[in-house]
Amino acid sequence: MATAAFAEWRRTPRFRRVNPLPPFALAAPGFPLRALAALAARSALGGPREVLLAVMQAARMVEGAAGPHALPEAQRRARANAARSWLSALALPATPRLTITRAIEASAGTSREALADAWEAVVQLVAPGADLAARAELRRVSNHLAPAVP
User: Fold this and answer.
1) DSSP label at 48?
2) What is the distance, to the nearest Å, from the Cα of residue 71 to the centroid of all Cα atoms in its chain?
3) What is the C-alpha to C-alpha distance for residues 89 and 133, in angstroms, rounded to an integer?
4) Alpha carbon distance 34, 27 (integer Å)
5) In angstroms, rounded to a whole number, what is the distance separating the alpha carbons of residues 66 and 144?
6) 43: enclosing H helix or E strand
7) 23 contacts 115 by C-beta, under 8 angstroms
8) Contacts made by residues 115-120, CB under 8 angstroms, sequence distance 24+
9) Residue closest to 138 by CA, chosen among 70, 59, 51
10) In degrees rounded to 5, what are phi and psi of residue 19?
11) Per-residue 3-state assignment (H helix, E strand, C coil) for 76-97
């Protein structure tokens, strides 16, 4: 009989669940290229890591040009100029430098076809050494460039 008196007490949770965020807090922003960043972190110092960092920058430029929240052309040009100067400070091999520079320059322009071609060259550059998650992120960026189906 004594255990029956406490049965109801045991069914109720001892601690109330507390929401970790206050009601006025904003959601934490997500980083869209986590797998590519992880791949860069696992890469050897020097050339391979710097190529992947430059590819991450190019992906951000492509998303700024053709992503869901595309930037105005003036901002894209300013970003491309800043990215070009940053890219000149990296120790990249000639072929990846030219490929990534082409994608960054295409992100400042208005031709979506030129941007898609330049981005596909970047994907072909990185895809052989990328893991499945990084390839999925590269393809997600490529999907922003696909023509809209009516």
Assistant:
1) H
2) 16
3) 28
4) 18
5) 6
6) none
7) no
8) 115/62, 115/65, 115/66, 115/145, 116/142, 116/145, 116/146, 119/58, 119/62, 119/145
9) 59
10) -70, 125
11) HHHHHHHHHHHHHCCCCCHHHH
By C-alpha distance, which of 53, 97, 52, 57 is closest to 79?
Answer: 57
Contacts of 93 (CB under 8 A, 6+ apart): 47, 51
Residue 120 has a pLDDT of 96
Give CA–CA dist 84/9, Å, rounded.
Answer: 66
Instruction: Determine if the pTM surpasses 0.85.
Output: no
CA distance 55 to 124: 11
For 92-135, the pLDDT digits (tens) are 999 999 999 999 999 999 999 999 999 999 999 999 989 999 99
* Tokens, residue 47: 């050339």
Closest CA to 67 of 98, 38, 32: 32
Give the integer Cα–Cα distance in Å for 69 and 126: 25
Domain boundaries, the chain: 34-145
Do residues 51 and 93 touch, judged by C-beta distance below 8 A?
yes
Classify burial at 71, counting beta carbons within 10 Å of its beta carbon; exposed 0-12, middle 13-18, buried 19 or more.
middle
